[in-house]
Design a protein that fits this description.
This protein is an all-alpha fold. It has one domain. 76% of the residues lie in helices and 0% in strands. Helix 4 runs parallel beside helix 8 and helix 6 runs antiparallel to helix 10.
């Protein structure tokens, strides 16, 4: 397993890394405790999943909306790729960076346009379409934090399992392009800020509105709860275009779907997604700044 894990003496690490590592361990322990508590509560009072699913089915979305959503996003990615290839052909030095920018920009712009179009097409408000009237905002933010902590031990477990699986199969373990970009100290500050804003603000808002807010309720109208969750989670994991991240992202997407199903309010998975991306980016910056020797 030497090619997967790098052995490091904790006492040789900078104090900042040690402190953050301790906080992460504490968060994981807290998450495990929350998971145990949730299991106990579910045994005492089993959740009414059919009732939650019926609430989701009352949302205005349909198969046509999902088809329009998927086809528009795919078209956007293809257009961005074509433009990037043209840049490569003419010898643009920054073509590699342009690909990432074009993909993210096309997705964000298309997604906002799709959401506005579908809301107007169905004649519904944001409040009704995404359950924003269910519960106080502070309550939903608190639930998002709790559910994020509960999901993290499971996501980390499957992340490690994915690494071990790829190693056992002799497959290369590749990081997401955005991760490599953030770990590169030579990238411009402006581009890094651009990606940080997209990851911390844009992605949680737009991806949750699309996948949990629209696609998930639409799927529930035509198939079972389990199939709807699995389908939406697989698509969510696949669009990140990194095979080694598919398993942990799929697990995290399932947690996001469960949180939305249980609460009926899109704020909860948005908060979970925001925390997930924020913590990931924060760790990348800390490692790049204080322990670059850990990057390999």
């Amino acid at each position: 397993m030497d090619s997967i894990f790098q052995t490091v003496d904790p006492h040789e690490l900078p104090l900042v890394i040690q402190l953050i590592g301790s906080l992460m361990v504490f968060a994981i322990i807290a998450g495990i405790g929350i998971d145990i508590l949730l299991v106990i509560l579910m045994r005492i009072r089993p959740p009414s999943f059919p009732g939650y699913a019926k609430r989701m089915q009352s949302r205005p979305w349909s198969w046509r909306d999902v088809g329009f959503l998927v086809s528009s996003v795919v078209l956007g990615f293809l257009c961005a790729q074509v433009v990037a290839e043209i840049l490569f052909a003419v010898g643009a030095e920054a073509a590699g960076t342009c690909i990432m920018q074009l993909h993210t920009l096309f997705f964000q712009v298309l997604a906002i346009g799709i959401i506005i179009y579908l809301l107007r097409h169905h004649g519904v408000s944001w409040r009704r379409a995404f359950g924003l009237g269910h519960g106080h905002v502070l309550l939903r933010i608190g639930q998002g934090i709790v559910f994020y902590l509960a999901a993290m031990p499971v996501v980390l477990f499957y992340g490690l399992a994915s690494m071990m699986l790829f190693h056992a199969l002799g497959l290369p373990f590749e990081r997401q392009p955005a991760v490599d970009f953030m770990l590169d100290p030579n990238q411009s500050l402006g581009l890094q800020l651009y990606l940080v804003v997209l990851a911390v603000v844009g992605a949680p808002l737009i991806e949750e509105a699309l996948f949990r807010g629209i696609a998930f309720p639409a799927m529930l109208r035509h198939t079972t709860l389990t199939r709807a969750m699995v389908f939406v989670s697989l698509i969510f994991a696949a669009i990140h275009l990194t095979p080694t991240a598919v398993i942990p992202l799929f697990v995290f997407a399932m947690a996001l779907s469960l949180a939305y199903l249980y609460t009926g309010n899109i704020i909860v998975p948005i908060v979970m997604h925001l925390l997930f991306n924020s913590v990931s980016i924060g760790m990348l910056f800390v490692i790049r700044t204080f322990a670059p020797e850990l990057i390999h």
